[in-house]
Amino acid sequence: MDIAIPLFDRITALDAIGPYEVLSRLPGYRVRFVAVKAGPYKTDKQLTLIADVPLSAVPHPEILMVPGGFGTRELMTPNPLLDWIKAAHETTQWTTSVCTGSLLLGAAGLLKGLEATTHWSAMDDLAKLGAKPVETRVVVQGKIVTAAGVSSGIDMALMLAAKIAGDDVAQAIQLGIEYDPQPPFNAGSPSKAPAHILEGLRARMRERTAASR
Amino acid sequence: MDIAIPLFDRITALDAIGPYEVLSRLPGYRVRFVAVKAGPYKTDKQLTLIADVPLSAVPHPEILMVPGGFGTRELMTPNPLLDWIKAAHETTQWTTSVCTGSLLLGAAGLLKGLEATTHWSAMDDLAKLGAKPVETRVVVQGKIVTAAGVSSGIDMALMLAAKIAGDDVAQAIQLGIEYDPQPPFNAGSPSKAPAHILEGLRARMRERTAASR
To answer: Which positions in chain B touch A185 (Cβ < 8 Å)?
Structure first.
């Protein structure tokens, strides 16, 4: 069974690789990195990721997992990736996203009237696509599962692993990746970060998002 | 300033990409993925990662970050990667590892008599290399910083970001990647996982490690 992770330019690497590291350990599944064209895609920093096959090679993945990144902002109008997401969703068992990957689900018309989440800085953009933004780490609406920013994909994928293969398998995966998080600070969400950190980062992200449109 | 992350066949993707996602956001630094030869390296699952340049192109990185994976077991005897690690360490500001990456630091002779950590399943192997294994998520010994299994590299990199650039920068990075972990289970370390999960996984990992030697 196939787990498809679409790549595009300027994705955020951890959005894809967090869930990949969890879901690639699910017995019976294999992860396919797909894109409009097979080949290399530059993330938003130095890393390059490789799409093994074109979108057309995986029309009916059992699990769709859409990562985010600044590159999503260039994909908001009709394009082949959105067409593929919309068509793939018709036959998936689970349609999922991390971070601003949910903006692509929204732009494909999949989130109308549904609760969904995204990176904390993109809640307004999500609302414009017809979703009801919720500031929760993972939001489940039927077979559509959206996760918050970047690192939240690890939590989402473990929850999904449990739904698919049971709690024992999910816990073995958690132990395998030694996911016993001990962040040195408690600044990982807007409600927990110091105000000056939040405002500084919000301003920098606004600039960068505007530059991506 | 350069952050060098060496790649090799059968590395664990998240070992590298967790710290990459944090450290690539450090102002003034750039991440270089290096390897014996530039080009594609297959991780322990489906993903392929690309080394941008050969080891010789980055002889003096300010930060060295060595990821782990089953592929480390084939690199325990003298080889060009260990030679490069040993030489690079002489001029680094920080020499770091995630998961069984510490076995490579050990095989390069850098951990003799030092406390260090690794994936929970590899503590015995670490002891054989002259280190004093400690079951702690991140261990700092002078400029050498070792982290536990796979996902621990995110915590390690945030700690390192704070040491290098201060608490405000580290907290802004944590907020940027929305690292507010909420794992659905509390099974991420040997002391927390249910006994039957631990024993089952330990047996499977022993088999796989033996097959890697």
So the answer is: 158, 162, 167, 170-171, 174
**CB crowding B115-136: b at 16 or more within 10 Å, else e:** ebbbbbbbbebbeebebebbee
Place of tokens 């950190």: A197
Name which of A45, A179, A187 is nearest B183 (Cβ-Cβ): A179
For B101-144, the pLDDT digits (tens) are 999 999 999 999 999 999 999 999 999 999 999 999 999 999 99
B105 alpha carbon, distance to own chain's centre: 10
Residue B212 falls within a domain, yes or no?
A: no
In this structure, the strands spanning A53-54 and A30-35 are: parallel
Please give the Cα distance from B203 to A134 (Å, whole number): 41
- Neighbouring CB atoms inside 10 A of A111's CB total 26
Nearest to A117 by CA among A201, A189, A47: A189
**The length of chain A, given as a count of residues:** 213
ipTM over 0.90: yes
Which residue, among B189, B13, B1, has the nearest Cα to B101 in the 3D structure? B13
Pairwise CA distance, residues A63 & A85, whole Å: 11
Q: Residue B91 falls within a domain, yes or no?
A: yes
Question: SS3 for A102?
Answer: helix
Q: Yes or no: say if B202 and A177 are a contact pair by the CB < 8 Å rule.
A: no
Does an H or E element contain A34, and which? strand A30-35
Q: Kindly state whether A152 is in contact with chain B, defined as any CB-CB distance less than 8 angstroms.
A: yes
Query: Domain count of chain A?
Result: 1
Q: Give chain B's length.
A: 213
Contact B46 A25 (CB under 8 A): no
Does residue A197 fall inside a structural domain? no
For residue B119, what is the domain's CATH number?
Answer: 3.40.50.880
Beta strands A48-51 and A39-42, pairing class: antiparallel
Q: Which of B12, B20, B31, B13 is nearest to B157 (CA)?
A: B20
- For residue A190, tell me if it sits in a domain: no
What tokens does A104 get? 């692509």
| Residues B159-180: tens digit of each pLDDT | 999 999 999 999 999 999 999 9
* Residue A124 belongs to domain spanning: 2-184
- Measured between beta carbons, which residues in chain B are less than 8 angstroms from residue A41? none
Catalytically active residues of A are 99
The tokens 């014996």 sit on which residue? B36
Cα A176 to Cα A197: distance, rounded to the nearest angstrom: 33
Question: DSSP class of residue B151?
Answer: T
Structure tokens at B178: 């929305």
